[in-house]
Amino acid sequence: MRNYLVRFSLDELNICRDELGGWHLEGHDLSFPLVEASDFKRIISLLETPVEVAKAALGDGFPYVCVVEAGLNHDSDYWIGLALSWVADVTARDASQLIKQLKILSTDKAVSQKNRQLARKEFKRLSNVDS
User: Fold this and answer.
1) Beta carbons within 10 angstroms of residue 47's beta carbon
2) What is the C-alpha R_g of the chain?
3) How far apart are CA 103 and CA 9, in angstroms?
4) Which helix (H) or strand (E) covers residue 51, if one does?
5) 69: left (phi over 0), alpha (psi -120 to 50) or beta
6) Residues 38-65 pLDDT 10s
7) Residue 113 domain flag
8) What are phi and psi of 67, to 5 degrees?
9) Range of the domain at 99
10) Would residue 1 count as lying in a domain?
11) Do residues 45 and 67 touch, judged by C-beta distance below 8 A?
12) Residue 96 lies in a domain
């Protein structure tokens, strides 16, 4: 295993930041870079951690919005709900990335009524911040 500046344990894997600022998911004999949006599906269980705990461990440089997007784009209402609970902590700069998905979720009948309402609430809030 390499030397990392930041390390956060997630199940039996670690989310790590290297000296160059790159994020990785590391385990016993495996390593995955966290670069593309699809890479963050591997760490979707981070959404089960309170956002304050994740931020205290990973710091401000972690791309939290990518994990939130992975949750919002998931087929499971469970992950959507957890992602929605993190939306309020996404930076205003990153919020614009979520507006389209929140609008879609707010009207998607396959999503629970609770999550549709939360998506609608966050969509309105972020739309007002964006303008």
Assistant:
1) 24
2) 15
3) 33
4) helix 51-58
5) alpha
6) 999 999 999 999 999 999 999 988 999 9
7) yes
8) -70, -40
9) 6-130
10) no
11) no
12) yes
Q: Bin 21: left if φ > 0, else alpha if -120 < ψ < 50, else beta.
A: left
Q: Which two tokens stand for residue 19?
A: 């000296």
| Nearest alpha carbon to residue 66 among 40, 101, 100 | 40
The owner of tokens 């956060």 is 8
Residue with tokens 């396959």: 110
Chain position carrying tokens 């998905």: 101
**What is the rounded CA–CA span in Å between residue 72 and residue 87?**
10
Q: What is the DSSP letter of 47?
A: G
Q: What is the largest CA-CA distance in the chain?
A: 47
> Within a domain: residue 38?
yes
Q: β-strand 23-26 against 31-33: which pairing, if any?
A: antiparallel
- As given in the structure block, the two tokens for residue 81 are 């709900």
- Per residue in 71-89, pLDDT tens? 999 999 999 999 999 998 8
Q: Is pLDDT larger for residue 108 or for residue 130?
A: 108
Domain count, the chain: 1
CA 68 to chain centre: 3
What's the rounded Cα separation, in Å, for the pair 63 and 108? 26
**Token pair in block for residue 114:** 């609770």
